[in-house]
């Protein structure tokens, strides 16, 4: 029996959708990562029960850290982006986490930089707070180890193509690393929105909207570019088509980054039918009811969509591109230098 709800919601479902596609479905991803991170910090004495943990988040990490703090008797303070909605803000308040939301900004880069600046201000006043740094601290890789072990157990000796959205890089990076360390043959496919610095699409704007949780306009230390074999970039309309098809065809109600990963996974599965293709569903569809699912009639048929194959980022174009990344280093602007 679980001793705290964080253990239950942190455990993903592994669902076979057809003979090639498997969905690694989280109710809300990052709980498993935040809980293991907090436990590691407590075990190593970096923090003590009752301490305050602080970080910036665009949504699901805020909830994950609040649950981990609730489980372990810590205080949680979040500097949130404008994508943190009323439902989450209310839950955070009742859970005892404190939350401050930045002023709305249409500029994602500015929004991220302002959140970091605000955290530095708070830390100057409260040097005793511990900054979790989900985008940079490798402690966030730890929690995915058990998930990788389970994936390995359940897929046996099959070669795996793992497909997932890249935000902090921790989930895709840690799962691929864990599987490869266990001897599995893993091809890793990262999914990105346009307008993201991480894999060099920052010169192309997606006119409709950003996909919450994936992509970045500042470099992240937890993205290890050399782990990735392939990168897909998807625009909002393609991700919408994926999300709607995933619900219609397989009854999985998940968010936009999942819709994008599902589309990329279908494509990769078609290229190499001998592999088991596992894609990550990071959150449920509730946040996207109005912006995505209510528009189901305008969703393109996924069979009509195909990525443009590019060999360099200057060829990128909306709404969907694919590039063989081949374990290359990241763009210089997206790489965190030591220090
Ligand atoms: C909805 C959603 N999908 C995918 C991701 C990417 O996960 P990671 O930060 O592990 O790269 C995030 C991260 O915030 C997210 O919120």
Automatic annotation (TrEMBL):
Domain Tryptophan synthase beta chain-like PALP: 28-282
GO biological process, one term: alpha-amino acid metabolic process
Keyword Glycosyltransferase among UniProt keywords: no
One Pfam family matching this protein: PALP
Highest taxon, organism lineage: Bacteria
Cofactor: pyridoxal 5'-phosphate
InterPro entries: Cys_Synth/Cystath_Beta-Synth, TrpB-like_PALP, TrpB-like_PALP_sf
Assigned keywords, A-Z: Pyridoxal phosphate
Keyword Transferase: no
Name of the featured protein: Pyridoxal-phosphate dependent enzyme
Organism: Streptomyces triticagri
Lineage: Bacteria, Bacillati, Actinomycetota, Actinomycetes, Kitasatosporales
């Amino acid at each position: 029996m679980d001793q705290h709800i964080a253990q239950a919601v942190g455990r993903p479902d592994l669902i076979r959708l057809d003979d090639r596609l498997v969905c690694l479905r989280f109710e809300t991803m990052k709980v498993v990562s935040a809980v293991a991170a907090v436990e590691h910090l407590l075990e190593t004495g970096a923090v003590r029960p009752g301490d305050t943990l602080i970080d910036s988040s665009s949504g699901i990490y805020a909830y994950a850290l609040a649950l981990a703090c609730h489980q372990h008797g810590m205080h949680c303070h979040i500097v949130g982006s404008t994508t943190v909605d009323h439902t989450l803000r209310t839950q955070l308040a009742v859970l005892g986490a404190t939350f401050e939301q930045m002023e709305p900004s249409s500029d994602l880069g500015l929004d991220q930089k302002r959140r970091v600046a605000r955290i530095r201000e708070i830390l100057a006043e409260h040097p005793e707070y511990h900054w979790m740094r989900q985008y940079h601290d490798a402690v966030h890789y730890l929690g995915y180890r058990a998930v990788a072990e389970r994936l390995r157990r359940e897929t046996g000796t099959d070669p795996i193509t793992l497909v997932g959205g890249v935000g902090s890089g921790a989930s895709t990076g840690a799962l691929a690393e864990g599987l490869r360390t266990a001897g599995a043959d893993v091809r890793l496919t990262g999914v990105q929105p346009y307008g993201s610095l991480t894999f060099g699409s920052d010169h192309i704007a997606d006119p409709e909207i950003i996909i919450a949780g994936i992509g970045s306009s500042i470099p992240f230390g937890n993205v290890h570019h050399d782990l990735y074999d392939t990168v897909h970039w998807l625009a909002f309309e393609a991700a919408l088509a994926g999300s709607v098809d995933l619900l219609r065809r397989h009854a999985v109600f998940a968010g936009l980054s999942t819709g994008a990963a599902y589309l990329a996974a279908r494509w990769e599965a078609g290229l190499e039918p001998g592999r088991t293709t596992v894609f990550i569903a990071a959150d449920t569809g509730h946040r996207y009811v109005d912006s995505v699912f209510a528009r189901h009639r305008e969703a393109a048929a996924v069979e009509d969509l195909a990525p443009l194959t590019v060999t360099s980022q200057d060829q990128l174009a909306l709404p969907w591109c694919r590039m063989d990344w081949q374990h290359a280093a990241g763009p210089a602007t997206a790489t965190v230098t030591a220090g």
